[in-house]
């Protein structure tokens, strides 16, 4: 495929004298020799995006499919060379002969002209959805799906070429306001598309990137990769330190409270968009002053002697889907909890915040109130 595309690119250069076309198509077919920065858990809006691509101008599409998604994401800012290269890719991969076949409103138009009109945009959308560029557009279905054709077999089931291209654009960054590319990104992430890149957008993007980094093409969690990630180790060790003796429902509760604080703009978590930032903002005794359960969990991840590897295996299986945003919240959005038993041993009274009229106590299946009392903001 690459050889054929490069050959056609050469003929384009010969006919119109535009040397940039061949270079762009080499980028489109992945023949650049470029490598991507490795990524793990993102810890701030400025960090790498967690999918293996560093944000900025160095983004290089790894396949023709990614190139088309990149040009689609650029929209009106794409150059004529980039548009023509995307059109040529559509022509070669469309299965409709040697010319682009756009069928819009029953009419067929062909040609590679470097113009991003409605027909080219429609063809790109169909191609990204996994349909032939020459298919008639599906009525009422203009959205670009995350279920993309041509993705590499080692990529996550949740990988979305459009999101990947958009998050690497210069203007798509924390603090950007009223931006059309941010709106596109938010739409793909399934959140309110207001064009303002704030905490909610960063949290949604972080969740997407974690999910892509730590799941395979079938959507299964890559536990070996996940357990090597420092943020997840701290996350799971804190859950163990806070609730190891209570069982699955309590583990999930603590796991969700940590994740819910990334969505919350109150108290000391203002601005926290990752579990790492939440833990370092304080409020979890097991993390702030590690106890034996926390240390045992840390030993489990480091490969040192652990007294309860079986329990830790269960805990990891329970909380990993929550860390990746793959399981519903069992707390109804709760962000605070305490253990009455532990509290009575250490202090004379319940925590002062538990009396706040801004809070409501949640009843969570499988958790007794004398084990944990759990709260959310009204």
What does the secondary structure layout of this molecule look like, with pairings?
Elements: H1 2-16, H2 19-28, H3 64-74, H4 80-93, E1 102-104, E2 107-109, H5 118-129, H6 161-166, H7 180-189, H8 199-213, H9 223-227, H10 230-243, H11 248-261, H12 275-280, H13 285-288, H14 292-302, H15 309-323, E3 336-338, H16 340-346, E4 359-362, E5 373-377
Antiparallel strand pairs: 1-2, 3-5, 4-5
Helix pairs in contact: 1-2, 1-4, 2-4, 3-4, 3-5, 10-11, 10-14, 10-15, 11-15
What is the compact description of this entry?
This protein has a domain of 155 residues.
- How far do the termini sit from each other? 57 Å
Order of helices and strands: HHHHEEHHHHHHHHHHHEHEE
* Mean pLDDT, all residues: 75
Structural class: mainly alpha
List low-confidence stretches. 1-57, 95-110, 134-153
Radius of gyration: 25 Å
Percent of sequence in beta strands: under 5%
Instruction: Count every helix, treating DSSP H or I runs of 4 or more residues as helices.
Output: 16
Number of E-type strands: 5
| Overall 3D form | elongated
Helix proportion of residues, in percent?
A: 40-55%
- Record the strand order, biggest sheet: 3-5-4
Biggest pleated-sheet summary: 3 strands, antiparallel
């Amino acid at each position: 495929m690459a050889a054929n595309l490069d050959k056609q690119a050469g003929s384009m250069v010969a006919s119109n004298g535009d040397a940039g076309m061949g270079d762009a198509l080499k980028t489109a077919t992945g023949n650049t020799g470029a490598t991507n920065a490795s990524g793990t858990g993102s810890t701030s809006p400025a960090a790498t995006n967690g999918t293996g691509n560093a944000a900025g101008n160095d983004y290089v599409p790894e396949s023709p499919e990614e190139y088309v998604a990149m040009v689609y994401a650029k929209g009106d800012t794409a150059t004529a060379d980039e548009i023509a290269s995307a059109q040529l890719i559509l022509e070669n991969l469309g299965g409709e002969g040697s010319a682009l076949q756009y069928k819009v409103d029953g009419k067929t138009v062909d040609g590679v002209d470097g113009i991003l009109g409605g027909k080219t945009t429609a063809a790109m959308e169909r191609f990204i959805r996994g349909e032939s560029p020459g298919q008639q557009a599906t009525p009422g279905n203009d959205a670009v799906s995350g279920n993309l054709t041509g993705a590499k077999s080692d990529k996550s089931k949740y990988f979305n070429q459009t999101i990947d291209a958009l998050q690497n654009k210069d203007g798509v960054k924390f603090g950007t306001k009223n931006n059309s590319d941010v709106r596109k990104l938010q739409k793909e992430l399934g959140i309110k598309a207001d064009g303002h890149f704030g905490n909610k957008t960063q949290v949604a993007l972080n969740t997407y990137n974690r999910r892509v980094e730590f799941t395979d093409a079938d959507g299964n969690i890559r536990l070996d990769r996940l357990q090597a990630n420092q943020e997840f180790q701290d996350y799971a060790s804190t859950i163990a330190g806070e609730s190891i003796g209570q069982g699955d429902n309590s583990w999930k509760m603590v796991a969700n409270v940590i994740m819910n604080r990334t969505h919350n703009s109150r108290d000391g978590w203002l601005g926290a968009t990752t579990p790492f930032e939440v833990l370092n903002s304080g409020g979890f005794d097991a993390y702030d002053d590690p106890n034996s359960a926390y240390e045992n969990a840390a030993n489990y991840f480091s490969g040192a002697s652990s007294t309860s590897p079986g329990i830790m295996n269960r805990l990891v299986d329970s909380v990993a889907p929550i860390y990746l945003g793959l399981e519903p919240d069992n707390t109804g959005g709760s962000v605070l909890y305490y253990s009455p038993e532990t509290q009575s041993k250490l202090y004379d009274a319940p925590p002062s915040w538990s009396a706040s009229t801004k809070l409501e106590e949640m009843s969570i299946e499988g958790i007794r109130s004398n084990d944990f009392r759990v709260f959310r903001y009204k």
